[in-house]
Amino acid sequence: MDEIYQCFVVVDENGNIISAQQGKNIIATDPYDFGFLNDGEIEISEWKVVIEKMKPKLVSREGGDAE
């Protein structure tokens, strides 16, 4: 089983991730727009945030979801 990673992100008006803090059991040290739990670290430049059914969601710039 993969370990759970926290990811706190700041996004622009299009959902592109500007900055992020991620790791195991971290405490966000800066203000953030959204927080996610992932099965591992993600390559920030490959993902963006969209709002789907009133919930934020990480999606690949290629179109896939973060699992």
Tag the structure with descriptive keywords.
67 residues; mainly beta; 5 strands; 0% helix; single chain
Fold topology:
Elements: E1 5-11, E2 17-23, E3 34-38, E4 47-52, E5 55-60
Antiparallel strand pairs: 1-2, 1-3, 4-5
Secondary structure: number of strands: 5
Give the helix level as a range of percent.
Answer: under 10%
Strand order of the largest sheet: 2-1-3
Overall pLDDT confidence: 89
Ends: how far apart? 13 Å
C-alpha Rg (nearest Å): 11 Å
Compact description:
The chain has 67 residues and is an all-beta fold.
Task: Give a verbal description of the structure.
This protein has strands at about 5-10, 15-25, 35-40, 45-50, 55-60. It starts with a strand and ends in a 7-residue tail after the last strand. It is globular. The protein is built from no helices and five strands. The model has no long low-confidence stretch (mean pLDDT about 90). The protein is about 0% helix and about 45% strand. The protein is mainly beta and about 70 residues long. The relative contact order is 0.26. Strand 1 and strand 2 (about 15-25) form a beta hairpin. The chain has a three-stranded antiparallel β-sheet with strand order 2-1-3, with no helix packed on it. Strands 4-5 form a two-stranded antiparallel sheet.
